[in-house]
Amino acid sequence: MVSVLGAGDEFLDLLERTLAADIYVRGNDIQLTGTAEAVDQAERVLRDMVAVSRTGQGLSLADVERIAAMDGTEPVSAAELLTSQVLSHRGRTIRPKTLNQKKYIDAIDQHTVVFAIGPAGTGKTYLAVAKAVQTLQAKKVSRIILTRPAIEAGERLGFLPGTLSEKIDPYLRPLYDALHDMLDADAVPRLMTAGTIEIAPLAYMRGRTLNDAFIILDEAQNTSMEQMKMFLTRLGFGSTMVVTGDITQIDLPGAQKSGLTEVQGILDQVDDIAFCYLTNHDVVRHPLVGRIAAAYDRYDAARARATPGRAPNRLPGRPT
């Protein structure tokens, strides 16, 4: 019961605030009262919590919140979602935590090119790197290639001190961080020296054909249309491409069009290409991150209403 109700009944307190049914606990028995619909929902949530607990992986407050938020119409149960696994390293398991993340992982398994579009903290890059490491370890590819455009708000490469390599490193740091979470500390430099893992700015992709590789383009909202076309046409035999980005955080200068924004209309009907959209509900960082992103969405929508002809930067179907 402690694993289901939480230490100090913290999970129970969350369920009482979230669910419409009344929950009464007596020893090892839980009684639910309320409308038939409310009781059915509460029973489903508790059964999923018990199923996850029986796997031995344990529940967190965030897990319970996600289980309670599911309405029961999803194609997979909360228990199936929270116990699926992408990669394990030193006792730590990386798994999708929301339904959209599960769809994203499945799309990578089923398609050659996958686009993941969504706000910060939804696991776009992290899950892609986890799939890349899993695919490499399973010997389905011979190398991993991680790339980003070297464009950020407020400064450019020329303003940073050091050699070209030292200038580029800060832009690629999130990719290094993800790799160090999934591989031993000494394995990353060894694999990079051997060429098994390559981390490079997008400009280094020009003129290449990338065979037998798992290729990730991160921060793709900062690619031009020409850069996006150049990257996608690098695809070789036996390779998988994952393109991630947030179209609400475009740092391109002037009125330059984002390659990630435009590619949705160009490739959405092409076979073997999948578009996955993640929303604020898929944010798996601190809960405040999701609320911050939602507040910015509301701000963008309000500005769009106040300025005729201005469209908010948001995903198709994304709540405001």
Report on the architecture of this protein.
The chain is of the alpha/beta class and 320 residues long. The protein is 42% helix and 15% strand. The chain contains twelve helices and ten strands. The strands form three sheets. A six-stranded parallel β-sheet has the order 7-6-8-9-5-10, sandwiched between helices. Strands 1-2 form a two-stranded antiparallel ribbon. Helix 7 (124-137) packs across helix 8 (164-182). It is globular, with a radius of gyration of 22 Å. The two termini are 38 Å apart. Mean pLDDT is 86; it is low at 316-320.
Strand order of the largest sheet: 7-6-8-9-5-10
Describe the main β-sheet briefly.
6 strands, parallel
Backbone shape:
globular
**Which structural class matches the secondary elements?**
alpha/beta
From N to C, what is the helix and strand string? HHEEHHHEEHEHEHHEEHEHEH
Radius of gyration: 22 Å
- How many extended strands? 10
Uncertain residue ranges: 316-320
Mean pLDDT: 86
End-to-end C-alpha gap: 38 Å
Number of helices: 12
Helicity range: 40-55%
> How would you classify the quaternary structure?
single chain
Percent of sequence in beta strands: 15-25%
